[in-house]
Design brief:
By secondary structure, the protein is α+β, with helices and mostly antiparallel strands. Helix content is about 65%, strand content about 10%. Helix 10 runs parallel beside helix 11. It is elongated and about 140 Å long. The relative contact order is 0.07.
Length: about 425
């Protein structure tokens, strides 16, 4: 039995070389060739005014701020353009957020935005695209001119026709026009291909860079998970030591006294037994609350909406709950968001002197589960090692999400968490 040779795979054009994408790239380059000469002078003016006016009461800082965020806008638009044109699943360019309070934190945020390598790669690609677009516009002009020149015998009166400043005999016009037309078309196609190649090199992260980033994120998530488990273990130990353990010790002592009194003073013994029974029920309630703090069973049974409704019902302060999610997310995502909200409500009740809270939960189009908890308390909340907010941060980080805290002195306090839905 002879085996048939396997059919050779069909040669396929790269994704950036398909006719439709090349046509789109040519249109994009033409647009960049028109917009580039407009954006560059604006950036130059903002930078010049910013540096020149900086000594004048810091007025130049406003122009420098505009310069930085115009760069960000260009980078964001360029990233979205490349992703839409070549479908390479680029994450959108995100503006940096302040991680420290006050003006110093704001300056740090602006500086981190200015040195963001992703933004600069996108800006560099936009600049190169503008240059290529300028060349493409010239080639497109040559394309149209040469096409019209090929028909010079139909309209020439003196036997000569002019092309790019050169007089050419009408008899040669069709040949020259076609040659120039093909050359201009080849330049346009070449520029479109070059644009795709450069965009993939400059803007799209390499496979090695993606693996390095994935490893970094995994390390951060692992550290967050370890830290979250450590904070949770410490909390459980503290709750057992400060709450349930003393109550159980009290129950044992009360039963011991009742045992001593049961023969000589039955009435007192009955009173002590009733007191021990009451303390036992209180201990059971505390243990149930502690178990609910470790994991809410209603979360698995009925979902996040029902779990948050039960949580809001037990809150010591009024909670306005607004949950709009379709379907279920992964268990890790729902658990992270649930405990972030639960801990935020606990902190608001203990420390903020808030009279009400508002909880908003959405499942966004980008596949993330987003929640915001806001109270009208005193504000001034900070993430302290081992504290409740530290536990929230580590739990959300372990789930691959992000957290943002905004709590100025005087309030209000707002906590936002975003976790990949994972379903």
């Amino acid at each position: 039995m002879t085996s048939q040779p396997a059919p050779s795979p069909r040669r396929r054009l790269p994704a950036h070389s398909s006719p439709a994408v090349l046509a789109g790239a040519a249109v994009h380059l033409a647009a960049m060739g028109l917009l580039g000469p407009i954006a560059l002078p604006i950036l130059g003016i903002l930078l010049g005014l910013g540096i020149g006016l900086l000594p004048v009461f810091g007025i130049g800082f406003v122009f420098l701020l505009g310069f930085v965020y115009l760069l960000f806008a260009i980078g964001w638009a360029e990233t979205a353009r490349i992703d839409g044109l070549y479908d390479v699943d680029l994450p959108p360019l995100k503006a940096r957020r302040a991680d420290r309070p006050g003006f110093g934190g704001f300056l740090r945020m602006v500086w981190r935005q200015f040195i963001d390598p992703s933004m600069w790669r996108a800006v560099a690609n936009a600049a190169i695209s503008a240059i290529l677009g300028t060349v493409l516009l010239g080639s497109a002009s040559a394309l149209v001119t040469s096409a019209a020149f090929a028909f010079a015998p139909l309209y020439s009166q003196d036997g000569w026709a002019r092309l790019f400043g050169f007089d050419i005999a009408v008899g040669w016009a069709p040949v020259v026009g076609i040659v120039v037309f093909l050359c201009a078309a080849a330049v346009i196609v070449g520029l479109a291909i070059l644009h795709g190649m450069l965009a993939r090199v400059i803007v799209v992260p390499t496979r090695e860079a993606q693996l390095v980033e994935q490893a970094r994120v995994s390390d951060v998530q692992r550290a967050g998970a370890l830290r979250a488990s450590e904070v949770e273990r410490t909390r459980i130990e503290r709750d057992l030591h400060d709450g349930v353990q003393p109550r159980l010790v009290s129950v044992g002592m009360t039963l011991g006294l009742a045992q001593q009194k049961i023969d000589e003073d039955p009435a007192t013994a009955r009173t002590l037994i009733a007191e021990a029974h009451t303390s036992t029920k209180a201990a059971i309630t505390e243990l149930r609350q502690l178990a609910r703090g470790i994991h809410a069973s209603v979360l698995d049974d009925r979902g996040l909406d029902a779990a948050l409704s039960a949580l809001a019902g037990r809150s010591h302060i009024p909670v306005h709950l607004d949950v709009r999610i379709d379907g279920r997310c992964s268990r890790d995502a729902e658990t992270a968001v649930y405990f972030a909200i639960a801990e935020s409500l606990t902190n608001a009740a203990k420390h903020s002197r808030a009279s009400e809270c508002r909880v908003v939960v959405r499942r966004r189009d980008d596949g993330t589960l987003w929640a915001r908890v806001e109270d009208n308390g005193l504000g001034g909340a900070r993430v302290l090692p081992g504290g409740g907010l530290d536990g929230i941060s580590n739990r959300v980080l372990a789930a691959g999400g992000s957290i943002r805290l905004d709590s100025p002195q005087g309030g209000p306090t707002a906590l936002e968490v975003s976790v990949p839905c994972g379903s």
